[in-house]
Design a protein that fits this description.
- By secondary structure, this protein is mainly beta.
- The protein is built from 2 helices and 20 strands.
- Strands 1, 2, 3, 4, 6, 10 and 13 form a 7-stranded antiparallel beta sheet that branches. A 5-stranded antiparallel beta sheet has the order 5-12-7-8-11.
């Protein structure tokens, strides 16, 4: 079910629905642009309701276990063997000029269904010739829901994965005809990394940051927020600020481009709030890590985020 929330509260007519096709990067144009609307919420209430999101991966809706709990469905996206994992929507609901519409924030809830699969879920927006991916990776909690936020104003945190005409990110926002939510590891290119696994997607919300829109249901947990590394690129050590929302331990891992864990540690945050961690640029055996592109992951039982780090020598 799709619905529209306004600052004053009433829901839009039930007939406002979202349509979509295919996750892979076909070059078929999207529908004629309408306009994204501040306060729109995409939900998946009802068993079998896919809200017309499509994918080459297996899509199901169990009709229960979503953000709202028993009786609330969600979109489950799965791969039983290594392949691209994600789904996209190219309908009029997400098409149009996002800048004119004033929608500059997208929130959605994720669940690492059936255990830890080292997922890193990214948000993508644009059109078939000009497509941009949000660099921050979202790490869903195991068998639980957490809400993640994409700041569309964070222009430095988007990477072009398709750009035939050398157009800008701003142009992509003005001519968007699709959004895509997929698993991917750095470096970010058109074709995402393959993986075996599944994740749940629920409660996609289009918002304007200057106007408060209360969510219908707030997930029970908030994932660890990892800030961008400093410096980046780094010649040696790099410092990461992160924020926690509970008192549980936080695990941090540095992963190379091949997916191998170079360094891993667990810290006891002790209290909710802001913390920092510095990686000295060495692996678990104390050897200097090679120059290259790395991912730094920070997560707790509530989920987490990942950031890209470029190491030079």
């Amino acid at each position: 079910m799709s619905r529209l929330l306004t600052p004053s509260g009433p829901a839009a007519p039930a007939g406002l629905v979202v349509l979509g096709i295919l996750v892979h990067f076909s070059l078929v144009p999207g529908p004629a642009a309408a306009q994204p609307v501040n306060g729109f919420v995409e939900s998946f209430t009802g068993a079998g309701n896919l809200a017309d999101w499509d994918s080459q991966a297996l899509r199901t809706n169990p009709g229960t276990g979503g953000v709202g709990g028993v009786g609330d469905g969600y979109l489950r996206i799965a791969r039983t063997s290594d392949a691209q994992l994600g789904a996209r929507n190219v309908t009029t609901t997400y098409a149009g000029n996002w800048l004119t519409a004033g929608v500059d924030r997208v929130r959605f809830s994720l669940n690492d269904v059936d255990g830890n699969q080292n997922l890193e879920i990214h948000f993508v927006i644009g059109n078939s010739g000009n497509l941009w991916q949000y660099d921050t990776g979202f790490i869903p909690p195991e068998n639980a829901w957490a809400e993640f936020t994409v700041d569309l104003r964070d222009t430095a945190n988007f990477t072009a994965i398709i750009n035939f005409l050398d157009e800008t990110y701003s142009t992509a926002l003005q001519t968007a005809d699709r959004i895509l939510i997929r698993h991917d590891n750095a470096p970010y290119i058109q074709t995402p990394n393959s993986i075996t696994g599944e994740f749940g997607l629920d409660e996609i919300k289009l918002q304007q940051s200057l106007i408060g829109v209360d969510p219908v249901v707030r997930p029970p947990s908030r994932a660890v927020l990892l800030a961008a590394p400093f410096p980046n690129p780094a010649r040696g050590s790099a410092t990461f600020a992160f924020e926690t929302f509970d008192e549980g331990p936080v695990t941090l891992a540095v992963v190379d481009a091949r997916g191998r864990i170079v360094f891993r540690t667990t810290v006891a945050s002790g209290v909710a709030g802001r913390h920092s961690w510095t990686w000295d640029g060495r692996d678990a055996d104390g050897r200097t890590a090679a120059a290259g592109v790395y991912r730094v992951r920070a997560w707790s039982a509530a989920g987490g985020t990942s950031r890209t780090l470029v190491l030079t020598r």
